[in-house]
Amino acid sequence: MRRGRTPPATATERRLAAVWREVLRVASVCREDDFFELGGDSLLVLQVFARLDDRAGPLPRPTVIYRHRTLAALAEAVDAAAADPGPAGAAAAPPAADGVRDGVEEEVRDAVGDGAEGPFPVTPGQRGFLLAEALSPGGGTWLARLRLTGPLDPGLFQRAVDLLVERHGMLRTVFPAGARPPVQQELPRSLRLPVDFEKAAGPAEVDAHAAAEAERRLEPWAWPLLRLRVLTLAPHDHVLLVHAHHLIGDGYSSALLIRELTETYDRLAGGAAPATPGPRSRFRDHALARAGSGTGAPATVERVARAARLSAPYRPPVLRTAADGDAGFGSVEFTLDAEVTAALRTVASRAGTTLYAPLLTAYYQELAAVTGSPDLVVGLAVSGRDQALPDAHLVFGPFATAVPVRPAGAADEPLTDGEFTDALRRVAAEAEEARAHEDVVLPRHADGLPMTSQFFFTHLDFAALAPRGDGALRVSWEDGDSTFLPPSSATDLFLAVRPAGGGLRVTVRGSAAAFSPDALDDFARAVRGRLVRAAESPRIVVSPPPRRRRETMDAALVGYLPAPAHLARLAGMPESALPRAEVRELLFPDGRPRLLETVRTPLGRSGFVCVPLFADELGRGNGLVEHTARAVSLAASLGARCVSLAGMIPSLTGYGFDVLRHRQYPAAVTTGHAATVVSVVKTVHAALEATGRDLAELEVAFAGLGSIGASSLELLLSLAARPPRRLLLCDVRGSAPRLAELGRRLRERGLAGEVEIAEAQRMLPDAVHRADLLVTAVSGATAVLDVDRLRPGAVVVDDSFPHCFDTGRALARMRERGDVLVLGGGLLHVGRTHREAAADLPAAAAAGHLAQPWIDGTLASCRAESLLRAADARLPLVHGLVDAAVARAHWNAV
């Protein structure tokens, strides 16, 4: 036992240790050992879980190992799944084969029927291949070339193929034309797949045969969707061409097929009985499970945060022009020798990851450099077999899928600028996060394609499936490379890596519409250069990630969380997906305010300090003043010279006076209302200028005449050359006397002519909807303004929280009819901004927070006010209502 290590202590740890020793071929395993540092990879993960029996209870999904990498941690996760199979870890068992689960759509159920061997639904991945086939017929196949060394008996080889066709249903599957929804059908087990046996005079003739085979169409509706050709160069030298459609099998399946084919051939050649137990599951079980119960994964905070992070605004770089069309693909290859590969493996191991990660990192870094975009999404191919489907690792089928790797979405600096080892850690951590949540539903681009489609990476290391090498036939990859095709015609760049002897063979394929031959060659050369440089110093000890300094800031905003239902809607999840107590425990384990993020701006650095309350919990009886006071003190301790208050906090704390009376602060406190008033008026000015309107010619309605509304009205009118043609003031029931007095003062000062007063009931009155310009600042209400009732040409500037109208309807009317302009009024343009999650924020919370909607270059006006005051101490603080002098001072400052 290694020094300083402890042996397995529990029954589960001992059972796991035995499996690890067998799979990883190590002499001993300790509780602290990391599976991946011992040489594990994603395919060996499948073997570990295949060797674990479920006599002690249900097993978690294999992806659990990406979050529980040590023996002790994984054993604890296995025990937890056995004790409570319902939550995150455990996956649903496959359905019975006699039909589809109740969750399948009715039309799919009708198509599938009840027969055990009837048609069954296609998976989402297969739907994508069917769509690609419809758009680009014949483009969804792969062609592998393998060298077979040894005596080959055609009759025995054909018999081995027949046994595999009987064993694997997907080798007998077709996709009936015209079926809606699409289905797949296994054909009888008695089918015989004929192998073509031919002689070839030399490599040139092999190339010609391979090129001709690649041109052959494999129609989804016609069997077979797999073709095998054996080209004999000499009695003991053969080339096997395997041509198959992605609809029936993936890269893992090809390696599995070759291993089982050679092992079955060896048994037949040796006179042994060929019959071996088949896998306990079929691909149809996987398809039925997907159709019947979705992914089966519960909506945990981590999954929701992952979904929210991936849903954050993303602008894929445009590398093609509309005229480029489908111009095919170019290809460049290079080889990393055994010495460089060994050095990269050392670099990866010291960073706590495996060999694929340095290649993915170099690929990502060069993509960022070429596109000029620090935030990119790369599709990472994964086996897709990480579910509790018995013997999934032994099933031929198209399980493979792509998960999105987006390491720079919340990073401090672009990956192109950092040290390779730092970038490697970030990429590896993001890839592990993606693998752990591979069943999260992916957002799609505007063209309907998945976000993983533009850039793609796959590591074709199937060493775990390699034949033993001591049989009658020995297998190796043919020197003439196999054809690796990108997942769709929309892919701009595709990088595939596979072992080549002791080194690696790297294939870079690029769309001719996005990369010229020279540009593709330059890209491949640059990726290779990054890898060689990373490999030159593998002996340098990789230090742990540097501790981030305690955040310092110039100013801060104290706010609160949106209501859980609102957070769930932002993440595209059901309203029940984010349990209030779980979110609060995750973010505020001690019940105190905490820093969530900082934003760098040209004005300085601003922090967001959040109180442990949700928007629907605000009120005087829940400790709001005390929480706000603690938050102000925390912000001041982090360097904030001025702190502003967000949303409803000012009005619920006596416009800030209650907070000021609670204690003394080293930082100044302001409500943020003055800058908000300025932003509302500036937005009105911008809207009128954009639409060519003159305030003096308009009927203007102000709805909600509280602190923001009344002050915005006065500032707008005082800056106008002439008053509006007609002014309508509207507020809640019982406000008429106050509004009448406000109107009288405005008329006396010459700021308004005709003034009409209205009180709102459940909805804003018709008179408001008939106005040319509507300025709304309504607190706590939603959908009091009906955008469908607005007159054509109307302009709405809204500072309500949440918005006082249905935002979906507003966007739809602007998009479909284009006759109204509806704007938010609470943002100010401050120049380039950069958001950073707080260093101690849990990863799931950081991802979810940074994924909330954000317009680059802008800042909430209330937040900008504290930055303005921190930059210029002469700017008046705001407590109470915003008077004309204070509004003017902030107008001039902005």
UniProtKB/TrEMBL annotation:
SMART domains: PKS_PP
GO biological process: amino acid activation for nonribosomal peptide biosynthetic process; enterobactin biosynthetic process; lipid biosynthetic process
Cofactor: pantetheine 4'-phosphate
Listed GO CC annotations: cytosol; enterobactin synthetase complex
Keywords recorded for this protein, A-Z: Phosphopantetheine, Phosphoprotein
An example Gene Ontology molecular-function term: 2,3-dihydroxybenzoate-serine ligase activity
Pfam families linked: Condensation, PP-binding
Carrier domain sequence ranges: 7-82
InterPro entries cross-referenced by the UniProt entry: ACP-like_sf, CAT-like_dom_sf, Condensation_dom, NAD(P)-bd_dom_sf, PKS_PP-bd, PP-bd_ACP
PANTHER family the UniProt entry points to: FATTY ACID SYNTHASE, NONRIBOSOMAL PEPTIDE SYNTHETASE
Name this polypeptide is given: Condensation domain-containing protein
The species this protein was found in: Streptomyces griseoflavus Tu4000
